[in-house]
Design brief:
This protein has 13 helices and ten strands. By secondary structure, it is of the alpha/beta class. Helix 8 crosses helix 9. The chain is globular. The N and C termini lie far apart (about 55 Å). The structure holds pyridoxal-5'-phosphate. InterPro entries: ACCD_DCysDesulf, TrpB-like_PALP, TrpB-like_PALP_sf.
Length: about 350
C-alpha cells in the first residue's frame, strides 16, 4: 500500500490544513451526534472551496505538460469554474469557462451575480451555452483557436473529477484522519455532498487505504444514489490505479466504506427545497456558518434527516465536510430572502 502523493506534480493553491471546528450548538440542536465542521470552505484562494484540492494535482500536471490554456465546464453557477479561474489567475494561465444553462433558474441574480461575476473578475473568458450541442461546438472552437495561436490546452472535466483530481481528496482524508487522531477520536461518520464525485471518492479511498474504521456518508445532490455510487467507484478505481494500489469498489468489497443516499436531492441539481433552506437557517443560527443551496445545504438537510431518524448514537462523532459554495448563494439571493422572512 502506498499513499505517496509526493511523486505527483502539484501546485500549492490552498492553505492547509483547513480548520476542524467544534459545533456545540449545532450538535445540541441535532440532539445526538457530536458534530465537527471540516472547513474546506475557508482554504484561501478565490473565495475557497473543495475544488482547490483537486486543482493542486490537475494544474500541477497541466504545468508539467507545458499548458498555457485551461478549458473547463460546468453549470452557470459552477464553483469549480470560479476556483479554476482564480487558480489560473494566480498561475498566469488563460482560463476558458464553457458554462451550460442546465439549471432551471434565470434572472439577474442567477445569471450575473455570484460565481459568474467572480469568474469575470478573475479574468476568465466565460462562454454561456444553451445546451449540450452548443457546449460541444464552443469547446471545439476554443481548441481550434488555441491550435491556430500555438497555445497548449489542458481540458479539465466537470467538477475537476477524474482519477488525478480524486487524489486531492485522498490528501484531504490523510489530513482529516490526522486531525481526528490528534484529538483522540478514533472513528467518525464523515458527511459530505456528492456532485461530480471526486470528493467522496477521494475521502473513501484515502480512509480505506489508511485502514481507518469510520464511514463516509455521501448525500448525492445531482444523481440517483445508484448512479452516484457507480461514479465514485470508477473514480476511486482510477485514483487507486494512479497510486499503484488495488482498486477497491463500494459494492463488492468492504474496503471502501461509503454509503450514498439521495433523499434530499429534491426536484434536481441546483434546485433547493424547503428542507435545504431550513438547513441553511440551522447552521447559520447555531454556528454562524453559511452553507450554499446547491451542495452543502442538501448535505446538511440529509444530516438533519439522518439525525432525526436516530441514525447517530448520542455522542458519536460526525464530521460535516463544508465544501464551500458561498458565492453561489448570491445567485439565489431572491429565494434566500423569501425563505428567510
Ligand atoms: C463541486 C462541489 C461539491 C461536490 O464535489 P464533487 O467532488 O463534485 O462531488 C460540493 N460542494 C461544493 C460547494 C462544490 O462546489
Amino acid at each position: 500500500m502506498s499513499l505517496d502523493l509526493d511523486r505527483f506534480p502539484r501546485v500549492k493553491l490552498g492553505t492547509w490544513p483547513t480548520p476542524l471546528e467544534d459545533a456545540p450548538r449545532l450538535s445540541e440542536a441535532l440532539g445526538g451526534p457530536t458534530v465537527l465542521l471540516k472547513r474546506d470552505d475557508v482554504n484561501g484562494l478565490g473565495a475557497g472551496g473543495n475544488k482547490l484540492r483537486k486543482l493542486e494535482f490537475l494544474l500541477g500536471a497541466a504545468l508539467a505538460d507545458g499548458a498555457d490554456t485551461v478549458v473547463t465546464f460546468g453549470a452557470l453557477q459552477t464553483n469549480h469554474g470560479r476556483q479554476t479561474a482564480a487558480a489560473c489567475a494566480r498561475l498566469g494561465l488563460r482560463c476558458e469557462l464553457v458554462l451550460t444553462a442546465k439549471v432551471p433558474r434565470s434572472g439577474e441574480a442567477y445569471e450575473r451575480s455570484g460565481n459568474v461575476a467572480l469568474d469575470r473578475l478573475f479574468g476568465a473568458r466565460v462562454h454561456v451555452c444553451a445546451n449540450a450541442d452548443e457546449t460541444a461546438a464552443t469547446y471545439q472552437r476554443l481548441l481550434d483557436e488555441a491550435a491556430a495561436d500555438g497555445r497548449t490546452v489542458t481540458t479539465l472535466p466537470v467538477g475537476g473529477s477524474n482519477g488525478l483530481g480524486t487524489l486531492g481528496y485522498v490528501a484531504a482524508a490523510i489530513e482529516l484522519v490526522g486531525q481526528l487522531t490528534e484529538r483522540g477520536i478514533e472513528s467518525a461518520r464523515i458527511v459530505v455532498p456528492q456532485g461530480s464525485g471526486a470528493t467522496v471518492a477521494g475521502l473513501a479511498l484515502g480512509t480505506a487505504l489508511l485502514g481507518w474504521p469510520g464511514r463516509v456518508e455521501a448525500a448525492s445532490v445531482s444523481h440517483p444514489a445508484d448512479e452516484a455510487r457507480e461514479e465514485l467507484g470508477r473514480l476511486a478505481s482510477d485514483a487507486a490505479a494512479l497510486l499503484g494500489v488495488g482498486s477497491p469498489t463500494p459494492n463488492d468489497s468492504p474496503a471502501l466504506n461509503v454509503r450514498v443516499q439521495d433523499g434530499t436531492i429534491g426536484p434536481g441539481y441546483g434546485v433547493p427545497t424547503e428542507a435545504v433552506w431550513a438547513a441553511l437557517r440551522l447552521f447559520a443560527s447555531t454556528e454562524g456558518v453559511v452553507l450554499d443551496p446547491v451542495y452543502t445545504g442538501k448535505a446538511a438537510a440529509a444530516l438533519v434527516e439522518w439525525a432525526g431518524r436516530g441514525e447517530f448514537a448520542r455522542g458519536e462523532h460526525v464530521v460535516f465536510v463544508h465544501t464551500g459554495g458561498l458565492p453561489g448563494l448570491y445567485g439565489y439571493a431572491p429565494e434566500l430572502v423569501a425563505a428567510s422572512s
